[in-house]
Specification:
Strand order of the largest sheet: 1-2-3-4
Number of strands: 4
Helix content: 10-25%
Order of helices and strands: HHHEEEE
Structural class: alpha+beta
Number of helices: 3
Strand content: 25-35%
Oligomer: single chain
Length: 120
């Protein structure tokens, strides 16, 4: 969801839609139901001028006080470092975000899917 390319994406929402195979049915429905209500904003427009794409590095975050996992629900926190790269050699500082994720599956044989996600 943090990997974007302003030459093909119109907003961050496009990146979210690309993650559909990894989202629970309910979470995907919420993503689809909340398209951008306005333009992508000044930051995105600046990035578009430089034809930016992002690279993302993620690592497990130190998790203190998270709920206990069950066989069908798991809770994770990831530290995500997003770096924009302009195709004209323009650069901007990376952003570091902690993402909290709830994963779900219907049966033990099903793959895990993202059910909720928030940043802190």
């Amino acid at each position: 969801m943090r990997t974007v390319d302003t030459t093909i994406d119109l907003s961050w929402h496009d990146a979210m839609l690309r993650t559909a195979p990894w989202l629970s049915t309910e979470y995907l429905a919420r993503v689809i139901a909340t398209p951008p209500r306005s333009g992508p904003g000044a930051d995105w427009l600046r990035w578009a001028e430089h034809r930016v794409y992002t690279t993302v590095m993620a690592a497990p975050a130190v998790e203190m006080g998270r709920p206990s996992d069950s066989t069908l629900t798991a809770y994770r926190a990831w530290t995500v470092n997003t770096t924009p790269h302009g195709r004209d050699n323009w650069t901007e500082a990376s952003t570091l975000t902690v993402i909290f994720i709830t994963l779900v599956r219907t049966t033990l044989d099903d793959p895990w899917k993202v059910h909720t996600m928030s940043s802190g």
